[in-house]
Amino acid sequence: MYDPQSRALVDLALNIQTTSRNAIRGINTHPHLPPTKLDITISELFSIDTNPDSTFLQRFHSILPNLASIACPPTIPQDQLCQYFLTTLSPKRARARFREATAIYQLNDLYETFSKDMADHTHLLPSILSPTTSYPIAGMSRLQISHRLPPISFALNMRWKLRLPILPYEFKCQCNKTYVIYGDHPFNCSKNHKGRPHNMITNKFSQALAPLLSTANIISPTSTLDKEAQLHLPADPTARPFDVSFKPNCDCHPSNIFSMIGYDITITNATPPPPSNQVLPSSIDCITNYTANADLSLQDHEWDKLNRPNNRRTTPPISGDEVIGNLLHNQMILTPVAIDAHGRIGPMIRQNLYGTPPPDIPPRKQFKPNRPNAKAMYDRATTLPAPIGIFIEADQRWKQLQSDNPHHSQKFYGLSHYAPTPSITTIQQLGLGITHAFSTLIINSFKKLVHSQTSPAFDHYDFLLPRDQIVGLLLDNSLDVEM
Prior knowledge:
Blueprint: H1 4-25, H2 40-44, H3 55-71, H4 81-87, H5 91-117, H6 125-128, H7 135-138, H8 151-162, E1 171-173, E2 178-179, H9 195-215, E3 226-227, E4 244-246, E5 260-267, H10 284-306, H11 320-329, E6 332-339, H12 347-354, H13 372-381, H14 390-404, H15 422-445, E7 449-450, H16 460-464, H17 467-482
Parallel strand pairs: 5-6
Antiparallel strand pairs: 1-2, 1-7, 3-4, 4-5
């Protein structure tokens, strides 16, 4: 969210800061040589005290107090901010604080704009702004062919991300519900099966997680991740509670006390709006409340995974809580991975990856007394020595490896400056899998539309990709074949 419009004033301030210091103190041409001093007549041009008639310096110093209050640390006295900014403050730290302030300002502005122009969609912003599904559209290197989305998937996800219509008009679905033009319906439709998108995400999750865990020193480099491992649990020998699982086998990591750590992936519907009796003002509290509402929706699905349903296909039915109890007895961890319709991931997997603690359990979400193992599994998965903050561990270890081997040929973890660290690389790969899976689900859902006179059939390729783009793509492909 640090766009050129926001950078203009910041770059100007930092350039003046750097050039005035060089003019007054001298220019460093070599780390082991003293700075080269400039003529005093040049140095005086950069100071408002010796050049008070400069219109440029006058305008700059008129906005300097506001800039300095943002860029300087809060411990600096108010009357010393301008001098500290010009003489002492590190340009790198100043830019970081400017970046943070700009992001907060733009986020507040975005929420305010949405609340005025698209009030019915504001509750979706925490999910829409998720970086997981932003990277595949605008933040990954296209030099790798696997990072290039097909044109129809790119156009669909771009509209999906910008909250633009993906249909020309509303349709009736075969489930007898209305298919709105924004495409949220397939994620909550009984006629649209999520099996294939779920498998696509599972495969990508397994591929992306293996190098991350190896870098974090949780598993050895030769270890692999299992998919739907058969555990032969006493309560239910046929149960496969893990979509993806691994065995911690590095003695130096505290999680090696567990025999297996697994993830159960679930695709949820779009975040529902908050209760009608909950008033959300246009302020920072509004952002906090909307974010809490999105997390609460994801928590519902995490709870469903921990409160495993009973298997009623057997006689007598097999208790789902007993299956969770077997996992606890065998020193295993089950972490639900809830992913909503716009790519936001649930609080438990966020803690597992980012290290951010999950929100407090609301009163209505307390575990039932007849499900003691569900509560025990939640406590085990969200407290040490369970893996918490894998991204932080992997980034620190990668940084240490880089400093220990300064001549190491692999400067960027993901082989591109777009993916410099293990955390960014992993979230990019997860986002790529989620983006592919969701576009597949939405495109397949078009087959379930019921056409009528008010909603006739249409060509979704023609709607999502204008005709001139399709012709251009065909010409490009033909040229590639000829070459």
